[in-house]
Amino acid sequence: MTHFPAIFTIVATIILLPLSAFFIILGSFTLERCSMEHYLPIWMILLGTFLAIDRAFAWIFELNLYFFMKDNTKPVEELEMLNEWEFKKSGLELRVSNYTPVTVCGLLFFSFVGTYFLQNVWYIPESGDCNDLLILTSIIFCSIILLPCFLGLIFLFIYWIFLWLLSCFFA
Fold first, then answer.
1. What is the pTM of this model?
2. Mean pLDDT, to the nearest integer, of 53-71?
3. What is the span of the domain harbouring residue 145?
4. pLDDT band at 83, cuts 50/70/90?
């Protein structure tokens, strides 16, 4: 179980790093060509940059933990040194585990902003021209991020109502 964060970081990087490069390239090529919503390519570039920086920080945290474990063998004899080693290791592990919510919040933020920009494209389609790949990619990205969150909120709301009804009838 100690290798799970490293495996998660590797898999997430394999998925998100090419995606971030694609977002930056697509946003750069459509920067002047989207008169329908001129903020959409800028949003795409910022999203790709966020994903690349996010993966860089994730790798820095993982590599710090890896090199600590490689360079500092776990002491077995002296209790004080063992406690100090465990404290340093737990600090590095905490840094890695606390970084995932930053990624999730960033993805949610960019999805909400992207959905806001897509409203002009969706509701006023005659107002200009924009690359279909840019629009389709933005819609797919925002849907992949926001749809599970929305369904999760609905599930939690139904669960909360169920618990409330149980407490009313069996209290």
1. 0.78
2. 80
3. 4-169
4. confident
Tokens representing residue 170 in the block = 């069996």
Helix (H, G, I), strand (E, B) or coil at 3: coil
The answer to whether the CB of 105 falls within 8 A of the CB of 91 is no
HSE-CB at 27 with a 13 A cutoff on CA atoms is 20
Would you state the structure tokens that stand for residue 60, as one six-digit string? 């820095």
Question: What is the tally of structural domains in the chain?
Answer: 1
Cβ(69)–Cβ(13) below 8 Å: no
Residue 58 contacts by C-beta under 8 Å, 6 or more apart in sequence? 9, 12, 13, 96, 99, 103
Q: Which residues contact 12 (CB under 8 A, 6 or more apart)?
A: 55, 58, 103
In sequence order, the 6+-apart residues with CB closer than 8 A to the CB of 66 are 6
pLDDT at 140 over 90: yes
- 87: its two tokens: 């404290």
